[in-house]
Amino acid sequence: MDTAGFDIASVTSMVASGCQAIVFTTGRGTPTGNAIAPVLKVTANERTFHMMEDNMDVDLSAVLRGEKTILQMGMQLVDTVAEIANGRMTKAEAFGFSDIAVDHVCRFV
Questions:
Q1: CA 4: distance to chain centroid?
Q2: Over the stretch 64-97, which tens digit does the pLDDT of each residue have?
Q3: Contacts of 1 (CB under 8 A, 6+ apart)
Q4: Residue 16: its pLDDT value, please?
């Protein structure tokens, strides 16, 4: 999807276009959420996950350490998305993060 390049506006744009849930990948741990759709925050940066564990939902760093395969972690991620779709709250929802930002669509007018 061609959305704004910064986190909150891109999530807002995806939700506005019809996304029912966002799998938000991050390396540095941007704490973002949305009032309309759950935002599942995923990182493969072990340090980020441990430093921001209260904001991160899934740690995929086991792939980088060689402990699990991409397929194994992919299945775990799919299972987590299914749990979210069935009512489990994301960390952003639990903490009440509900960012919305609207970026300019046409900057030259």
A1: 16
A2: 999 999 999 999 999 999 999 999 999 989 988 7
A3: 10, 13, 14, 17
A4: 82
| Alpha-carbon span 15 to 72, nearest angstrom | 28
What is the C-alpha separation between 68 and 1, in angstroms, rounded? 30
Q: Are 37 and 98 in contact (CB under 8 A)?
A: no
Torsion 18-41-43-59 (CA) sign? negative
Q: How far is it, in rounded angstroms, from Cα 19 to Cα 108?
A: 28
Give the DSSP per-residue string, the chain.
----SSHHHHHHHHHHTT-S-EEEE-SS------SSS-EEEEE--HHHHHHTTTT-SEE-HHHHTTSS-HHHHHHHHHHHHHHHHTTPPPHHHHHT--------S-TT-
Say whether pLDDT at 100 is over 80: no
* Predicted TM-score (pTM) of this structure: 0.77
pLDDT, tens digit, 9 for 90 and up, residues 35-46 = 889 999 999 999
